[in-house]
Amino acid sequence: AWAMRAKELLTADAPAPIRAMVTCLQLNIAHVRYEMPRVVELAHQALDLLAEGDPYGLSVTALANLASAQMSMGDLPAATKTFREMARLGQETGHRFLLETAWSSLAYLLHLQLKPREAEALCRQAIEQAVGPRGELFPVAGRSLVLLGLIAYERNELAAAGEHLAKGLELAQQAGPSSSVMQAAFTLAWLQALSGDREAALATATGVCQAASQLNLPLLDAFVAGCEADLRLRLGDVEAAARWAEAAGLSPGDPVQYEREAEYVSFARLLLAQDRPAEAQQLLESLEQFARTRGIGRSLLTVHILRAQAEHTLGHHTEALTHLEQAVQLAAP
Q1: Which of 44, 85, 107, 199 is most buried, judged by most C-beta within 10 A?
Q2: Is 266 in contact with 230 (CB distance < 8 Å)?
């Protein structure tokens, strides 16, 4: 209501930065409402208004919201470009927080695109920007440490992964929740399970679910519930995962959306565990097309492995080997 009133009070000759300020208020509200196409539209309007000058530093708000919306819509190339612009702005202005945020976000995108070496280098650069005067790390460094942990996990460097994840989560929780931080917590839970401490793994998962439920964000709740179901499935509790899928209303023929992609990958694993390979294949074909179209190599790698399992169960051994070969080619670098 206040943002609408502010817009009504703007005169035709109001300075561009003031009009941009109202536009940024509107795009923040649109973001909370998850109206992502509207966020993209308003962010571009704000940036156009700020082209001649940005006395209030509003470009940061516009770029951060724009990149987040582009990621939510699955447009990784556009989000990558926006985060690079954020990094450029951070270097020009000496804004360390902005630079750290841009680099850690870029690293996350590079990780999704199966470029772990570049992602790791950016994470370390980002962490250097988040060191305080007494050598302490600011909470903003948490996300970069978390990503270093995920990269170490995928290299099977489990001790390093656990160390990075634990330290990163401790910092990241001070900075506020995000889906990547929640995912990292479940990776830490899986590491606890691998070390033989099932109870600690379940306790970690429960803590994440409780933290997410306090935020009243339906999409985050759904994401966390999917991660918990995936963990329980890995621990052999097929029934718990099946109850989750039923409650979530998932079906093999559903169209895949970027913000729910992780849930559908977990659902595909469940279908395989329930000996429903044909239905799993139907879903995995959609996931493969989705990942290819958006250049999400990390997802494509997982899908190839799951498709190999489905084809093997169906007795299609040549097709299974083809998918495994493609997975190895993606993973080797």
Answers
A1: 107
A2: yes
pLDDT for the residue 181: 80
Query: What is the longest distance spanned by two Cα atoms in the chain?
Result: 71
Give the span between the Cα atoms of 184 and 153, in whole angstroms: 10
Which one, of 265, 264, 275, 286, lies nearest residue 310 by Cα? 275
What pLDDT, on a 0 to 100 scale, did the predictor assign at position 211? 83
* Nearest alpha-carbon partner for 241 in 215, 216, 273, 214: 273
- pTM of the predicted structure, to 2 decimals: 0.86
Phi, psi of 131 (to 5 degrees): -95, 130
What confidence score (pLDDT) does residue 177 get? 66
Give yes or no for a contact between 80 and 115, defined as CB atoms under 8 angstroms apart: no
CB neighbour burial string for 221-247, b if at least 16 within 10 angstroms, e if fewer: ebbbbbbbbbbbbbbeeeeebbebbee
- What is the structure's pLDDT at 135? 87
Q: How far apart are CA 303 and CA 282, in angstroms?
A: 12
Q: Can you tell me the distance from the alpha carbon of 166 to that of 168, in angstroms, rounded to the nearest whole number? A: 6
**What is the predicted pLDDT for the residue at 226?**
93
Question: If the chain, 333 residues long, is cut into consecutive pieces of 10 residues, what is the mean pLDDT of each piece?
Answer: 92 93 95 92 96 91 93 88 92 86 92 93 92 89 93 94 93 75 88 92 90 81 92 95 95 90 95 97 96 91 98 97 97 89
- CA dist 258 and 267 (Å) reads 15
